[in-house]
């Protein structure tokens, strides 16, 4: 299972051809997991050569099979109410991909994050804001990449611990905890590196390729 932004891509969101080659070389299916929307995930999975199973919106939406109907695991309406409150307090806050999102909302990183989190904790304690270094995600605490992995594994007839996870940032920690093995790229946060079974020397997609080839030698 692989994160995309900051793991398969660099900070410009350009995907590494080394990472693509590593994914395609593996003898097991690769599930992509991201905060991106499901239509993006379907296209990315096909172009990269990953499996037909995918986790979108930080675990809030999953799909197994390109022609299957996505499963939405969280209610976006509470996120919309919370977003209205945040936009009133922070009028410059800019939403991303709003028309395509089903379970969470995403924003540009142009707000005082701690103030936004404090406001959210006061009025919407069941929600949280995750900073992925690419965007801010307003989501339900009850769903994450780890819960998404558990559900995808069930639909694939597998156990979560049969998966290895590769990632870089805070929203990957639940995926690491649910999987049987965690692989961190060289640019990963200290929290992710601490939780990892293997830490790549190289950053971004080149580090993902390094980690995946390390994994392949142990399959």
TrEMBL record:
User: What positions does the entry give for Mg(2+) binding?
Assistant: 3, 5, 168, 172
Q: What name appears for this protein in its UniProt entry?
A: Phosphoglycolate phosphatase
Q: Which PANTHER family match?
A: HAD SUPERFAMILY HYDROLASE-LIKE, TYPE 3, PHOSPHOSERINE PHOSPHATASE
Q: Which molecular function GO terms apply here?
A: magnesium ion binding; phosphoglycolate phosphatase activity
From the UniProt annotation, give the residues forming the signal peptide: none
Please give the catalytic activity noted in the UniProt record. 2-phosphoglycolate + H2O = glycolate + phosphate
For this UniProt record, the keywords arranged alphabetically read as follows: Carbohydrate metabolism, Hydrolase, Magnesium, Metal-binding
Q: Which Pfam families match?
A: Hydrolase_3
List the EC numbers from the record: 3.1.3.18
According to the lineage, what is the superkingdom?
A: Archaea
Q: Does the keyword Plastid apply?
A: no
Cofactor list: Mg(2+)
InterPro entries reported in the protein's UniProt record: HAD-like_sf, HAD_sf, PGPase
User: What class does this enzyme belong to in the EC scheme?
Assistant: hydrolase
Query: Active site located where?
Result: 3
Function of this protein? Catalyzes the dephosphorylation of 2-phosphoglycolate.
- Kindly list the GO CC terms recorded for this protein: cytosol
Which residues are recorded as binding substrate?
Answer: 145
What is the similarity comment for this entry? Belongs to the archaeal SPP-like hydrolase family.
Q: Which CDD domains match?
A: HAD_Pase (cd07514)
């Amino acid at each position: 299972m692989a994160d995309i932004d900051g793991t398969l891509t660099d900070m410009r969101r350009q995907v590494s051809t080394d990472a693509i080659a590593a994914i395609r070389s593996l003898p097991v299916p690769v599930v992509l997991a991201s905060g991106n929307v499901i239509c993006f995930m379907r296209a990315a999975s096909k172009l990269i050569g990953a499996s037909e199973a995918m986790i979108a919106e930080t675990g809030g939406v999953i799909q197994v099979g390109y022609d299957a109907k996505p499963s939405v695991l969280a209610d976006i309406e509470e996120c919309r109410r919370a977003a209205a409150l945040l936009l009133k307090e922070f009028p410059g806050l800019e939403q991303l991909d709003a028309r395509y999102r089903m379970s969470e909302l995403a924003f540009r990183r142009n707000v005082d994050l701690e103030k936004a989190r404090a406001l959210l904790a006061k009025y919407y304690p069941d929600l949280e804001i995750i900073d992925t270094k690419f965007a801010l995600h307003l989501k339900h605490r009850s769903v994450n990449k780890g819960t998404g992995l558990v559900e995808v594994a069930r639909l694939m007839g597998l156990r979560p611990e049969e998966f290895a996870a590769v990632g870089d940032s805070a929203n990957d920690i639940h995926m690491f905890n649910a999987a049987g093995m965690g692989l961190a790229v060289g640019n990963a946060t200290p929290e992710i590196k601490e939780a990892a079974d293997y830490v790549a020397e190289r950053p971004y997609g080149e580090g993902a390729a390094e980690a995946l080839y390390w994994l392949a030698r142990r399959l």
